[in-house]
Amino acid sequence: MTDFSKLLNPEQCAAATAGDGPLLVLAAAGTGKTRTLVHRVAYLIEQGVPADRILLLTFTNRAAREMLDRAKALSGDDVASIWSGTFHSICARFLRRWGSALGYAPGFQILDEDDQKKLIGDIIKTSVPDPKDFPKKEVIAKIISEAANEQKTVHAIAQRWMTKTAGIDPDAIQAIYEKYVARKQELGSMDFDDLLVNGLRLLREKPAIREMLQEHFLHVLVDEYQDTNGIQAEFTDILAAKHRNILAVGDDFQCIYTWRGAQIENILEFPKRWDGCRVIKLERNYRSVPSVLDVANVVMKDAPGQFEKTLRAYRQGTGEKPYLFKVYDAKSQANEILSAIGRMRELGYRYSDIAILYRSHFQSIDVQMSLARMKVPFRITSGVGVFEQIHVKDTLAYLRLLVNPRDELSFLRLVCLLPGVGEKSAAKMWDKLGRQFDGSRKEDRDILSGLFGAKAKTYWPPLAKCFECAHDHFAEDSIGEIIEDFCDLFYEDHLGREWEEADAESRLEDVKELAVQIAGGELGDAAGETHRGTESGRARLETFLADVALLTNLDAKKNNLEQDQVTLSTVHQAKGMEWPVVFVPWLSEGMFPSAKAQEEERMDEERRLFYVVVTRAKDRLVMVSPSIRKTADGGMFPVDASMFIKEIPEDMLTVRRVSFTPSYGTVPRAAPGRGAYTGGYSGGYGYSNRTRRW
User: What is the Cα–Cα distance from 96 to 104, expressed in whole angstroms?
Assistant: First the structure.
């Protein structure tokens, strides 16, 4: 028999070797959650529990495979028959075997996301008099998914969406949904949400199957329990009801997905739902140095309504105190991050040891541009750079057409944004315009208006107004307001038609940040030279567009060839990951925590997001807080440091205030042969002459 006390720390061992009965394991960040679960499986098998009577539920196939592989290394091939997988995959297995009780053949088809959207799109085309004026298939799919996971009617969810998206008619959405359900039945298929819904139905509605499965599974183990929704929590509760051997592993401090259905109440109320539940806390952290954990503990010290936990460091020594760079603006922030990356390289860290983690995607634009200019290789977790995103490319097409009336590709892309305009009709318009379009000329705008069909004609006037106003903005050197007009008059409504609210807002933020970039007037070429103040607005825009083209080409080459790259990621996408060095930009009010979260009083989740980002750092944590935000019209306004920064005692941080002077020099060049950004910012930004603490 294995001596688990020699393989695990006392808390891990207590969880892995616990006796029968319900158990909640509160596994704080970096405390060996997976290791504990794997050894729990090994312990159960050594105790004689048949592997095929153990159910292990995870949220990703990767996690399921990793746990099974590690359990196999401990216990041999016996673990192969464990029921292990995601909630969706386990429900699919149940339904393949017993779905006939609900009217499904064993060979039912599972629709992926693309299949689902195509099916809904086809129904809209054949059912709605004017599909162009109806909500997009992506919006309908989202409403249907929310209804399934929240166990509410589609009509009720559509009513809620009426406040978010123009054109939502709950009755019409309900009618599309009913046709969608009928079409799935004809095809003998289920979508991903159906797997969960019907898996739960099987347990709720078919007593014989429910009792058989309850008898069969002697132990039910659930990973990342804080991320479960109502369906998943009830599903596991029912399966474990007979033997009461349910092990839930999770961390309420890391519940950051409530926006996609996770219910933190599931983990918080677990001991109340399961009488006699034991609670074991894993607090010994193997990831981070003590100085980083001190900050994480402060962040969550007085968090209301959550389990109290204190991270304790396994690593010896205190490590470097986390840094807080108090900088002037986004440009200063980007340069300080680049400079610090250079210092990390000198200390021996690889680029792949470094991550830059941000609250929202638009907050990374300055950093992306600076990294690309200085030829520092980086990867973005979404796989798409800022200038390769659809909404940014739409905006760039508008800008390129402003400065080059003969830009055919930009014209075609822009007019195809209007309803009823396709690639062929757009190409015909281009030919009829004499293969050029000068939007500053009323004659050109009028001719184009006459070429549009009835649908596009309705949406053309706001875009035409953008072209008209752009002429005045050029004359007044108010270059950032060109994009502001584009957003306010036309593109914001376009995004609202094409995307759900949260996605549309995020994309709009990206576009408006471009306006700030251009209005700031500090544009660099791929060699690292910076130009400011001497060019007209039109010339600055032309410089910017040329710069973007160079950076995009550099990105394509760099990301194909380099493997050692800095990681750029949102905090949400970084959960479960770790890096030796972590940078967190924009720790300023309205940015992190986000203004929207503050408005909607979702500060508890923002706090958990900050906890997650802090605990990604193994060796060094560098936080950056700009004090100025710039606007598209060239103005600026002060912003306070993030409330989370203010809560950290001054003796826990090394604070560096970065001085600012209005003179601008050149962006520091990369170190020869290394591509590392090593210098300070000459003539513009620099460290104050001493390190100051709060």
Answer: 8
